[in-house]
Design a protein that fits this description.
Helix content: 40-55%
Number of strands: 4
CATH class of the largest domain: Alpha Beta
Number of helices: 7
CATH architecture of the largest domain: 3-Layer(aba) Sandwich
Shape: globular
CATH topology of the largest domain: Rossmann fold
Order of helices and strands: HEHHHEHEHEH
Radius of gyration: 17 Å
Structural class: alpha/beta
Distance between the termini: 19 Å
Number of domains: 2
Length: 187
């Protein structure tokens, strides 16, 4: 798991390297980044069964439980996904030499939401906000629909905001990443 998180970080860094050349051409000086993870439920959330029974129903009760779950205290023991994702974000921040700020968000079950993270990035008054997902492969509803919809809702409230959604990932880059990772186990 640890080496997979490091590999994820390297792919994100390589994505930023290719984006940097595009961005430099446009001469953006102050760039904020939002990296979106999937999100997972905390295993000690007392209303988990109710959450899954009401998920997608859009009732006041469902929204209340969703909000409670999103804001449930997280740690390594009750949400290993959350902890692993934050370790990747911290490594990225440590390695960062180009971006003004780096924020994280989750599609579901964890806070902050994409819109909340975009609000934080926007408060930095950047010239540009880049949003990307750690979900690499095409075909997923979150990366193809949910993240763009959140960005669109944010831009409706902040039409002056310049946002690039840096997705999808190049499939050859994904294949090379997987191949490189596999080769560590055969050499």
């Amino acid at each position: 798991m640890k080496s997979l998180l490091i590999k994820t970080l390297l792919i994100i860094l390589s994505l930023f390297t290719s984006i940097n050349s595009i961005i430099m051409a446009k001469d953006y000086k102050k760039i904020s980044v939002v990296i979106v993870g999937h999100g997972a439920p905390a295993n000690d959330f007392p209303k988990l069964k109710e959450y899954f029974m009401l998920d997608g129903k859009h009732t006041p009760e469902a929204e209340e439980i969703e909000e409670e779950l999103r804001n449930w205290p997280r740690n390594q023991n009750n949400d290993p996904y959350w902890a692993g994702f934050l370790r990747v974000i911290e490594k990225l921040k440590k390695e960062n030499k180009r971006f003004y700020s780096i924020y994280y968000a989750f599609n579901e079950m964890c806070a902050p939401t994409i819109i909340q993270a975009l609000e934080k990035a926007y408060q930095d008054k950047p010239d540009l906000i880049i949003v990307t997902s750690i979900m690499f492969t095409p075909g997923g509803g979150h990366s193809e629909k949910d993240i763009p919809a959140s960005i669109e809702m944010f831009v409706e409230e902040h039409p002056e905001a310049k946002i690039i959604y840096a997705w999808p990932y190049d499939e050859s880059s994904i294949a090379n990443f997987i191949h490189s990772h596999l080769m560590k186990f055969v050499n």
